[in-house]
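User: Please predict the structure of the protein below. I'd like the answer in structure-token form so I can feed it into my own downstream comparison script.

Assistant: Understood. Taking the following sequence of 797 residues as input:
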Amino acid sequence: MFIKNISTAFRQTTFVALFPTFLTWLIFYFIIFVPISLSATSSTLYDALKQGLNTRAHTMGQSFTAIADNGSGLSYNPAGISRLDFGLDFQHIDVQHAVYERASTYSLKLPPLALNIDSYHSSSDVFARVSALNFGSVKPRSISWGFRYKYIESSDKDGWSSDIGLLLHTYPFMDIGLVAKDFINTVDIDSTFAIGSAFFTPQKRFIFASDLIYDSSSLRGSSYDLTVGIEFHVLQELALRAGYGQHHSRLGFGFLFPFGSLDYGVKFLSNEEQHMLGIQIGLPRSFRPKFYQTLTRPSHYTFIELGQGSLSQGKSEKSLLGGNKLGSNDLLSLIHTSSLDPFCEGYVIKLHSLSSDLASLSLLQELRLELEKAKKNGKKIYVYITHWATMPDYYLASIADHIVIPELGTLSHLGLTLDIKKTKAFLNKFGIQPIVLSQGAYKTSSSPHTDPLEDYEKSFLEDLLQTMYMQLAEDIQSSRHITWQSIHHYFDGQLITASQAKKIGLVDHLAYWPDLKHVVNKNGDDIRLVPIEAYLPPPQARPLLDFSDYIAVIEIDGFIQQGPNTTNFLFGQNATGSDDFDEMIDSLIKNAHIKGLIVRINSGGGSMMASDQIYQALQKFRSSGRPVYSSMGNLAASGGYYVALGSDKIFANSSTLTGSIGVMSSFLNFQELYERLGISHDQLKTGKFMDLFSSNHLPSEEHLQMIKAHQQKHYDFFSARVMKDRHLTDDEAFFVSQGQLFTGKQAKKLKLIDEVGNFQDTIQTLATKLSINPKNLLFIRKKAKQHFSLMDILSLF
């Protein structure tokens, strides 16, 4: 098994593909620089200021200027602080009977700051201690910088010194580091300059690094020194290292754990060996593996926990009360990535109660499709229903190979219901008059401010509900391999005990969560669960020089508005700003390496003006000769559908809710309420329409007719755009432009979309068209402006 894992890990690297580049640089270094590399002497103070105490760096020949990605590594290049997470770092070098009795360093990483204390002690009571404060770039960038202030205490002299460094992410496979050490100091020591390069494969399974150091110090008696080192991850958690520097060979290895790492190395001196040990709590960003494995059993199950409020639709969200919510787009990508991982045996999904609104069903369908593809890749799926499951929960669970539920668990409401609240009569009781004007016979069906549903509206919504229900039922029958005749009478909303569910084939096992291991592994051995978030890639800087071609993805989430993207500070809930969208499109047009664009839509619409601005931005991108595809998520209606019209091809899930082609405006009038409260208004105006949309009095018929006429122009504009962009006849355009909601499957028949397919289908289709690797995907996300209002606070109570 161990040999097999090593073989698999080696095949996953792209070392062979990059070998010519590595070989060229090796020859260049050894021809140009090795002849001028000279021997060197040392002193305690010199070593304290110039030589880092980092086990990983030592075993790589001290070639760390372009890596510098842990706390003690900042002594090689302070710009490495951009690659640090919070954590502690301890390094110890055992050099008894060699140069020093002991040498060690302690580091505390709190980006953008880090603290280091390096100590050297010799047998003759000569010592040097350097206490350093580092600060610089917080996040990885194409160019990151860092500054290091060092307070020096030694048996010779005290004082201070400073280093400055740069890290350049030049290519996707290459970084360059530049550092000037002690360029300003009070201890009368010469400056040292170093340039380093690091070549690496994707995910940094293999790294080749080299440093060229210039030093005019009389203590060293040399001008140049060359170091080289390599690191190879035999497994994701085991790294082997070797290096050569200062005329000494070095070997070492490192173990990576979820909480940190342990490094060991040995330096071969002329008569003895120098041993090194390094311990870290917390991992640097650039050195964090995508997932963790053991040497004895590297396989694992990917763990996903889902419940109401655990997912945001579209992008991931962070908010004060909502916490961190993984975005549905990110989750779909992570499932796709993990399904390609040979060490992932399958998925264990812990399912709490999910949202039951109709729009969420498309998201669940998309998750099922990705999990179904994973099953075709040989992955097993286990779903544990924690207690109670309704139709959305069970629909997702039905894709599993094994469904587990506690003996006291319950299935219920295996069907769909649509509850449309109407508040017009309620508001009228308080003297508040809602005024709603619309174009499209069905546009106001879901508006709370209108009269109860007419029969024709009820009939249409019942058909929509029944269509979605039958889609879910067909998927469940197919996944569970059961006939509809045998189970249909259970899908009427009744309560179904776990025992009944098992008897009729809706679930497979009755067990509690701790006993799930007996279901997955009949021997009852513990199963290794790796959270799906472990597949999130570490933050990466964009390279300065990148010749790869990419497909860009821009997400349209929530309400579509003019101005910037926003998110609610308290609860999350993203909104898409047309101005920010425009800026992102302009930047993509200027980037020749962006060959296509996918617009991922999870929005029920918003401002028509903002939607048209986004539409025009997409036309601008298309005019540059590059295609735009739209991928509809759970909901792409009204303004969300308007935006999709700007693309070359539209994809939607079969249960996506789309359409709602029409125009509606509404406002509240408080005239009667003011009269009851004894509030009067004397309004002076310079024109008869200056009080348009006023809440102080009911609009006149003339006012309403003007609003309707104005709104009709927008409606005509919208429906004409649908007819032109979707190549519909007048009758076809008229039929679909009555404000109805359609499922993705219905929309395909009505020619409103081009293909029924999910997000990954959209990516794969466009990648094939452009002959681009589908992994070359760039999510273009602009940080949203946070906001909250008094109403948000009042809603807490």
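That's the full token string. Residues 1-42, 288-297, 790-797 have pLDDT under 50 and may be disordered.
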